[in-house]
Amino acid sequence: MAGNRRLPVDPIAEAKRQWIAHGWESAAAGMTAVTSIIRAQQLLFARIDATLKPFGLSFARYELLRLLGFTREGRMPMASAIARLQVHPTSVTNTVDRLARDGLVSREPHPADGRAAMLVLTDEGRALVERATLALNAEVFEQPGLGDDDTTELVRIIARLRKDAGDFTDPKPQPEPL
């Protein structure tokens, strides 16, 4: 893979130099930030994909299994899964279809809404997602490529970017229990 070969120059730094040379200095820092984030995502996804490949999972399939695995009973409405995964409903439907075909999830009628479906994690799905999570923790999440302080600061900065873009709002304070 081309990503394994170290380049003699950082192409993003070169792009910034070109941006400035072409008179776009006011956009150069932003272009550098955006393309750096995109490249970092590519590098992290390559690690994730390599870790999940032995389990026969894509990251989308893993995310859905993990989401169901976090629920008390291993089930949730399809609409809730779509909202939490923040992807197009068709993508979730296609992922569920593949997971159901492989016996990792099943669909059941919603108990209160005849038009809706419940997604249910099978025993095989639960076992697989637990093994995959152990591998991701060991091979990616415990060592993301940054020290603890840098990791914390990066998460803070990206959370601020996401919040300012309207991705989420701070939760309202909960009243004290009675």
Automatic annotation (TrEMBL):
InterPro entries: HTH_MarR-typ (IPR000835), MarR/SlyA-like (IPR039422), Tscrpt_reg_MarR-type_CS (IPR023187), WH-like_DNA-bd_sf (IPR036388), WH_DNA-bd_sf (IPR036390). GO terms for molecular function: DNA binding; DNA-binding transcription factor activity. Pfam families: MarR_2 (PF12802). SMART domains: HTH_MARR. Residues 30-163 form the HTH marR-type domain. GO terms for biological process: response to stress. Keywords: DNA-binding, Transcription, Transcription regulation. Transmembrane segments: none annotated. It comes from the Bacteria. PANTHER family: TRANSCRIPTIONAL REGULATOR, MARR FAMILY, TRANSCRIPTIONAL REPRESSOR MPRA. This is MarR family transcriptional regulator. It comes from Microbacterium allomyrinae.
